[in-house]
Each structure stands twice: as structure tokens, then as C-alpha cells.
Automatic annotation (TrEMBL):
It comes from the Eukaryota. Residues 33-93 are annotated as: Disordered. Residues 57-68 have a biased composition (Polar residues). This is Vegetatible incompatibility protein HET-E-1. Residues 70-82 have a biased composition (Basic and acidic residues).
Length: 320
């Protein structure tokens, strides 16, 4: 027994010596239990040590082999945020497009509507053109296109298919051969089958060699066409307006033009912004200077469809 007691005391001395060497004698080891603290005012309070759960350090073999380690930090759920939803759907599978055959049933007033298309007289004065190529109509001062209808067709617009045979769901009739009402001078020497009546949209016909916009059928479905005046929509209206016809749809069409390519029109503004963003100071005009940097041919073609073409003075004003 004496030997055991002597060994125990020796162990205690060695332990105290080790603690002294490590300078641990002066440390205060706080307990996880509440500590009693006496304040200067004599009140006694208790402080409790808050234990923060540690991030797990152990992981299974499955997690160790994973390409990414899981995060244990709490993050807000996107699905719980108002106005935001988490997209869980995958890209839609490709499907075959089925073209529905339209069964035409003529509207009861179709004959009257047809008469309105052709029985009109020119009452508006012909436009004048200024030194930068802008047209001016004295009875519509805010309508300022810089492309005439014949220039648009000769340069290439609407994929060469604007005047193709058209089935109107609204009227229930087939419209064709109405391109023949165009002035002979506008289409003289023009390959009609390629530039006007191609049954298929051909982007190579367009001035900027790109496709843009929707079909006349889509315009009709969207309610943008006033059939009693122009069954094909905007460009047909412009052809007739340019020749002097005036009708109740003029204000609406001029308003649409201004919203697209007017002084603050959407497409004109976006195209000029693209030039500024790319640091380009010279206007891109397809077919003229191959060294000129191309800036959004699609927006150029869109403006062209609205009888407007960005000119150098437009870009100079944007840079000023």
C-alpha cells in the first residue's frame, strides 16, 4: 500500500510540474453552467454560457466521395419569397409544329369591306423630302419616315412574302393579287415572285439578310389589323397613305410608327444604344462598306420594316 501511495503522490507532482511548464495554473476554465457574478451595486446576476452547435466534422463515405460538400448554413428558401418562384422545369422537348388548315367562311359584310380597299380617292398632298432624306406630310407633321414604300420593296423587306396569297380568319376569305394595285413605277423591273409574293419567308431577300418580326396571320390574331381599311396591316396602310389616301385608321398607325421608330421610339432608341455600347461611330449599312462593324442587323431590319433607317446624323446626335 505504501508503494502505491508513493506512486500516486509522484504522479501528482509530475502533473503539477507539467501544468507549471505549460502556464495553465493561472487559467480559469469556465463551466458551461451558470456563473455567479457580483456587480458593483451589490446585485448578484448569473451569466450563462451560450453554446453554439458546431458544424459537423464527421461525414460518411458517401459524402466524402461527393463532388461537392454539403453546406450546413441556413439559407432562405427562394420559394418562400413573394414574387419569386424556383424554376424546376427542364427545357421543353422539341415538338413537331402542326399547321392547321383554315376553313374559310366569309363574313357577312365582306363585299362592303372589299369595296373599301379599292374605292378610295387621294385627298392628302404628296410628301416632300428634305436634305437628309426624311419625308414630310403637311397634314401629319409628326409622321417622319425616311423610306418610301418602293425603296423598301426594292431593298428587301418582309422576307419577300408580304403580298403572298393570304387567308384571313377574320374575314374568311383568301386575299391575293392585291399587289397589282401598287403604282407601276414602284415595281417596274422588280422580280415580283422573289420580292413580293414568295409563299415562304426568305431572310436573304431582306436588306440586312436576317429574319425579324411576325407573320400577317400573327398580326391578325393579335388584333393589330383593321380589316375594313387594310387587311395586310401596317405596310399596306403606308403604301396607300403615301399615295394620298386618308382614313380613320391613320392616327392609330402614325401612333404605332412613333412608338417604334419615332424620335423616342423603342426600336430606334435601342439600336442607337447598341451603337453607343459597342463604341461604334459609323452607321452600318449592309452592302456598302464591308469594313464597317455590323451592329444588330435584326434591329436595323425591324426599323426598315417601319419605313425608317438609322442615318449618320441620328448616330452623331446620339453621341453628342
Amino acid at each position: 500500500m505504501a508503494e502505491i501511495e508513493e506512486q500516486r503522490l509522484a504522479n501528482l507532482r509530475n502533473k503539477e510540474k507539467l501544468l507549471a511548464e505549460l502556464n495553465l495554473n493561472s487559467r480559469v476554465i469556465k463551466s458551461a453552467k451558470a456563473q455567479t457574478v457580483k456587480r458593483e451595486d451589490g446585485l448578484i446576476t448569473k451569466k450563462r454560457k451560450i453554446e453554439v452547435p458546431a458544424v459537423p466534422t464527421r461525414s460518411s463515405t458517401r459524402l466524402q466521395q461527393a463532388s461537392e460538400r454539403p453546406s450546413y448554413k441556413e439559407e432562405p428558401d427562394d420559394e418562400s419569397r413573394p414574387g419569386r418562384t424556383k424554376n424546376r422545369s427542364k427545357a421543353p422537348a422539341k415538338v413537331d409544329v402542326v399547321v392547321e388548315e383554315v376553313q374559310l367562311q366569309p363574313a357577312p359584310d365582306v363585299d362592303t369591306i372589299r369595296d373599301n380597299w379599292s374605292k378610295w380617292e387621294a385627298v392628302g398632298p404628296p410628301p416632300t423630302r428634305d436634305e437628309v432624306g426624311t419625308f414630310h406630310f403637311e397634314d401629319y407633321l409628326l409622321f417622319l419616315p425616311n423610306k418610301s414604300p418602293d425603296e423598301m420593296m426594292r431593298e428587301g423587306c418582309f422576307g419577300g412574302s408580304y403580298w403572298r396569297p393570304l387567308k384571313s380568319r377574320r374575314l374568311g376569305i383568301l386575299i391575293e393579287e392585291d399587289w397589282r394595285e401598287l403604282p407601276a413605277a414602284w415595281i417596274q423591273g422588280l422580280e415580283v415572285e422573289r420580292y413580293l409574293t414568295d409563299p415562304d419567308y426568305n431572310a436573304d431577300v431582306n436588306k440586312y439578310k436576317v429574319a425579324c418580326g411576325q407573320s400577317i396571320e400573327e398580326w391578325e390574331a393579335s388584333g393589330w389589323i383593321m380589316h375594313e381599311y387594310d387587311v395586310r396591316g401596317w405596310f399596306q396602310w403606308y403604301c396607300r397613305f403615301f399615295q394620298g389616301r386618308r382614313c380613320p385608321d391613320d392616327d392609330r398607325q402614325v401612333s404605332r410608327w412613333r412608338k417604334c421608330v419615332g424620335p423616342t421610339g423603342r426600336w430606334k432608341r435601342m439600336l442607337l444604344k447598341a451603337y453607343l455600347k459597342q463604341g461604334v461611330h459609323d452607321v452600318f449599312d449592309d452592302g456598302e462598306d464591308e469594313d464597317t462593324k455590323e451592329v444588330s442587323p435584326v434591329m436595323h431590319q425591324t426599323c426598315h420594316h417601319w419605313a425608317y433607317e438609322i442615318k449618320q446624323h441620328d448616330l452623331d446626335e446620339a453621341w453628342a
